Write the structure tokens for this entry.
Amino acid sequence: MKIFFRVCLSLIVFFAFNAPLNAADFIEPKAVQNEEIDQYLVPHKALYDIKLVATRSGSQIINISGKMYYEWKPTCDAWVTDHRFNLFYEYADSPGMRVTSDFSTFETFDGENLNFSARRKRDNTLYQELRGKAVVADKGGEATFTMPEDLDFKLSQGAMFPMAHTIEMIKKAKSKDKFFKAVVFDGSDDEGPVEINSFIGDSVNAMKIIQASDDLDMALLNTPAWKVRMAVFPTLKDEELSDYEMSMVFHENGIISDMLIEYGDFSVTQKLVALDRLEKTDSCEVKKPEKIVSDNKNEKIDKN
């Protein structure tokens, strides 16, 4: 089972940085940044509460709770994202289980190259580790895994990586386009690219929805935002129904302030509880982020 938020969340995906990307794995990037959109995007770190809000007939899950830490920032030639999930699942007929998931990406500004690394643990026992790189081009591309070996996926013409998808979402919203369909690959699992069908709804004033808090940089939330609905479909299976669907408040600076994720037998919310701006860096090195400090603004999420 995967609790997965794909869109840069856009984020939208598993994760952290206990398994840092190896510099030897990096693809030489083309440092071409979209200056028009870059003026809106804000490097930031955020903490979300995840809670079960609904179950449907036949579901064995009686509760899901936990947190997700997300960090996004540009380096001199790429966007770097880090995610960390710490979730506890409770079942009707089996013992509870804690799942921790770490994920990091390095996506060049031109949207053509992606390096990715992911690790997942079940009750502190590693059960999945992924690592690799992907390239897209005008005629299509390919994702190649170094862990596990001999795993690769062809990427169709027009396929996108997460940040490129987020940027295109911002463009569509600002130009008042309502529908957007794209094939997206992020390397967070071994199931290949997905098709994301998005409906961009009315603009929304997030300041009327979110309760002010000292843990939230409210200036980052006092920005244009839209209600967005997404349906995520597998591309390697002939499925008429989506794997899952998401409703969110999506800001023009790339922040997601509220999200509902609906799976076949249950639904969870992802509520923003802490938010800080990150300073842009001129460094071209990808460094392991500092541990989250347990204070009023950043609750330590890996202590369990």
